[in-house]
Every structure is written in structure tokens, then in C-alpha cells.
Amino acid sequence: MKLRPTDFRKIRNSTVAAVLMTVVGAASLYFTADARKNAQLAQKNSAQQRAELDTKLKQVRDEEIEIKEKSIIFNKLRERGIIGDEQRLEWVELLKNIRDKHQLLDLDYEISPQRPLESTSPNDVAYASAMKLQLKLLHEEDLLRLLGDLRNQANALIAVKSCNISRLALTPEERANSHANLAAICEIDWITLRDPGKN
Q1: Backbone φ, ψ for residue 175 (5° rounding)
Q2: From CA 127, how far away is CA 190, in angstroms rounded?
Q3: Are 165 and 140 spatial neighbours (Cβ–Cβ below 8 Å)?
Q4: What is 88-193's CATH number, 3.30.70.360, 3.20.110.20, 3.40.1360.10, 3.30.70.60?
Q5: 48 touches 158 (CB < 8 A)
């Protein structure tokens, strides 16, 4: 079968249409693939942004919980009188009440001037007043009760730096008339915190 020039005219339109359809199909495939790639990239970016936002939200929630916990501790310290000015007269009253409650003998004390607890910065907030405490004891438990009551009731944090207990050298006659067998000397820090809101 031979093709004549008139046959070429007949198939030309079909050939052009086929070529156009091929070009349109190829373009459609290219743009579809490109659109799919862009959609996948957008999805990946969206997932990454969501993960970052979730992380930041978790951080904010954790910080909020931490602030609430610290606020509760701060309020408890303030209620107890640990935050604010020293209240030495109340400390003295507390010592007298503990002495009377436990019937302690010869309780003497000496309080040193207040000093910054740690001189690491010019904006110190923790201060300590050293107290030298001397008393006579019937037995060691008297000292433990005294220190326990101070820790539980004082409007300061109590840090016991040292306690030395020694047996009293008593004659048999003194021992019969005395209720004390031991002498104790303790060094205690009464720690208070400056109120950051009162500068």
C-alpha cells in the first residue's frame, strides 16, 4: 500500500492531535509529580512545625507546673516567717518556750550579727545569724527534742553546724542533787531570706 499526498493530509490532523495529547499528557504527569512533591514537602514541613509547637507547648506547661510548685513553696516559707526580716525576739521566745516545755537546765545563747549566707553576688537573698547555744542535759534526747522543735517551729531555717556533748564532772554529792549529766555546746545558723518584692 502506497501513501499518497492526500493521505498525509488526512492523517496530519490525527498526528497533530496525537502529538498534542502526548505533550499534554507529559505536562500533566510532570505537573502532577511536581504538585505531589510540593504537597509532600508541605506535609513534612507542617509535621515538623507541629512537632516544634508540641515541644514548645510541653515546655510551657512544664514551666507553668514548676512555677506553681515554687510559688507554693515560696508562700509556705513566707507564711512561716522565713522570708522577710529576722525576728530575733520571736526566736528568743521560742527558745524559752522549748526550754520550759522540756524542762531544760541552764540554757544560754549568744546570737552573732547577721551576714550574707554566701557572698557570691551583690544581690544576696539568703542571710544567716550564727547562734552559740549552751545547755545542760539529763540525756542526749533532750538535745534532739530541742533541735527538732527549733526546726519545726522557728521562723527561720535552722542549720546545725556542730554540736559537742560532754559528760559533766560531778562529785557524787552534786550528782545526787543535779538533774544534769551532760553539757552541750552547739553552733546553729538561723537562715532567713530577703523578700525579693521589697527592694
Answers
A1: -65, -35
A2: 8
A3: yes
A4: 3.30.70.60
A5: no
- Which cell is 172 given? 557524787
Phi, psi of 104 (to 5 degrees): -80, 155
Q: Quick check: 124 pLDDT over 80?
A: no
The residue behind cell 512537632 is 51
**Confidence at 150, pLDDT banded by 50, 70, 90:** very high
Q: Is the pLDDT of residue 172 over 70?
A: no
Q: State the pLDDT confidence band at 175, using cuts at 50, 70 and 90.
A: low
Q: Which of 138, 142, 140 lies closest to 101 in space, CA to CA? A: 142
pLDDT value of residue 71? 82
Pairing of strands 182-193, 157-167: antiparallel
Which amino acid makes up residue 38?
A: N
